[in-house]
């Protein structure tokens, strides 16, 4: 079983601060996705990264896939209360039809 | 724009009871899956299907059955509910296996087994 560990598990910061959350594995993945989940709803896809070293930006969010395709990070600049939610990474491999989710980071932005 | 529809939203069962969680998608997606979400454990795959008539086990399949008689529907059956099955269940679908595909989720079913 491929495991994805996310850190920190919980993070609470003031509005306007920057933050980084991490997704780590001992396994190599063909692609890695990041989802955000709000209370009472299902996760919603933010981004997919497929190339080692790839960096993708989505407004104030920056996603990076590690060179060895075993880890990823999500950096948020000038956090807003609307960024509050559960952030989940998920890894997949070509030829394997399963998506493995990480343990999640619960982020709270305090106004 | 219905997307992925799950019913019911909430359910309380007694130990030993059986029930079916319904999932339907209107996007003509080939891939459908069921996950359970427990605190601190992320989402764990229960069963998945790559097309009508084809199902396979995920990470935590014990105690659950699925079938895929149509492209649209993918029900999850609990044969004899146990307290360990108390969880939030999510159905999800994508065009193909989610290696590089967007997975669309339903809004979840919160199940309590007493």
Can you count the beta strands of chain A? 11
Sheet with the most strands of chain B? 7 strands, mixed
Mean pLDDT rating of chain B? 94
What percentage of residues of chain A falls in helices of 4 or more residues? under 10%
Helix and strand pattern of chain B? EEEEEEEEEEE
Q: In terms of structural class, how would the helical and strand content of chain B be classed? A: mainly beta
Q: What about the largest sheet of chain A? A: 6 strands, mixed
Describe the 3D structure.
The complex is a heterodimer of chains A (111) and B (114). Chain A is mainly β and 111 residues long. Chain A has no helices and 11 strands. In chain A, the strands form 2 sheets. In chain A, strands 2, 4, 5, 9, 10 and 11 form a 6-stranded mixed β-sheet that branches. A 5-stranded antiparallel β-sheet of chain A has the order 1-3-8-7-6, with no helix packed on it. The model of chain B has no long low-confidence stretch (mean pLDDT 94). With 114 residues, chain B is mainly β. Chain B has strands spanning 4-7, 10-13, 19-25, 31-37, 43-51, 54-57, 64-66, 76-78, 87-94, 104-105, 109-113. Helices cover 0% and strands 49% of the residues of chain B. In chain B, the strands form 2 sheets. In chain B, strands 2, 4, 5, 6, 9, 10 and 11 form a 7-stranded mixed β-sheet that branches. A 4-stranded antiparallel β-sheet of chain B has the order 1-3-8-7, with no helix packed on it. The chains are: A mainly beta (111), B mainly beta (114). The interface between A and B is medium-sized, with 30 and 27 residues.
């Amino acid at each position: 079983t491929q495991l994805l560990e996310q850190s920190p598990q919980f993070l609470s910061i003031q509005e306007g601060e920057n933050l980084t959350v991490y997704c780590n594995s001992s396994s190599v993945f063909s692609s890695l996705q990041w989802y955000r989940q709000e209370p009472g709803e299902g996760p919603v896809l933010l981004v997919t990264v497929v190339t080692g070293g790839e960096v993708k930006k989505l407004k104030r969010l920056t996603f990076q896939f590690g060179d060895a395709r075993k880890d990823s990070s999500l950096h948020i600049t000038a956090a807003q209360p609307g960024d509050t939610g559960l952030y989940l990474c998920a890894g997949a491999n070509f030829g394997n039809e399963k998506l493995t989710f990480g343990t999640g980071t619960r982020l709270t932005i305090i106004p | 724009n219905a997307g992925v529809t799950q019913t019911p939203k909430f359910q309380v069962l007694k130990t030993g009871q059986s029930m079916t969680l319904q999932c339907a998608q209107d996007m003509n997606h080939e891939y459908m899956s069921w996950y359970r979400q427990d605190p601190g454990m992320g989402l764990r795959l229960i069963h998945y299907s790559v097309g009508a008539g084809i199902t396979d086990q995920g990470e935590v399949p014990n105690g659950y059955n699925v079938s895929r008689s149509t492209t649209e529907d993918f029900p999850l059956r609990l044969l004899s509910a146990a307290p360990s099955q108390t969880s939030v269940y999510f159905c999800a679908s994508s065009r193909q296996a989610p290696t590089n595909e967007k997975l669309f989720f339903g809004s979840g079913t919160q199940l309590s087994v007493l």
